[in-house]
Amino acid sequence: MIVDFTLLLKEELMMVPLVASSREDAFEKLALGLEQYGFVKDTYLEAVKKRERVFPTGLCTGEINVAIPHTDVEHVVQGAMAVGVLEKPVRFANMENPKVEIEVSIIFMLALKDAHEQPAFLQKLAGLFQDKELLHNLASKTSTSATYQLLLSALAC
């Protein structure tokens, strides 16, 4: 089965730049959009925060670090992904070593409805994260529309 991950990307859920004072602040802003557009339940934000404390999602990718906060499918109404390109990086616990915090510049907040899609989508994102030029281009965008088009093209490949 081939999954079209571009269907998860919604321009109205992208925040470029995302002004946030902390990861919790960023979670609240990105989750608010997901909830306002009906993609997640009102339990989603707290579930993401709770999961992040146990299983942090900050990921070192080189120059531009990312985070992929998400939670269980029971908090999701319809699959989507909110993306925030932070105006200034915020600190996340490193998924590989939770005792270490890293500065994250781009957040990919996942709301996946089908648990079976999660490994494939995370693998797709991991492939994107290896593309240093793409991450640099995403982090340098100041327009939501330009960021959306760039990420849409990358997900389509």
Automatic annotation (TrEMBL):
<protein>
    <submittedName>
        <fullName>Phosphoenolpyruvate-dependent sugar phosphotransferase system EIIA 2</fullName>
    </submittedName>
</protein>
<dbReference type="Pfam" id="PF00359">
    <property type="entry name" value="PTS_EIIA_2"/>
</dbReference>
<feature type="domain" description="PTS EIIA type-2">
    <location>
        <begin position="7"/>
        <end position="154"/>
    </location>
</feature>
<keyword id="KW-0670">Pyruvate</keyword>
<dbReference type="GO" id="GO:0016740">
    <property type="term" value="F:transferase activity"/>
</dbReference>
<dbReference type="InterPro" id="IPR051541">
    <property type="entry name" value="PTS_SugarTrans_NitroReg"/>
</dbReference>
<dbReference type="InterPro" id="IPR016152">
    <property type="entry name" value="PTrfase/Anion_transptr"/>
</dbReference>
<dbReference type="InterPro" id="IPR002178">
    <property type="entry name" value="PTS_EIIA_type-2_dom"/>
</dbReference>
<keyword id="KW-0808">Transferase</keyword>
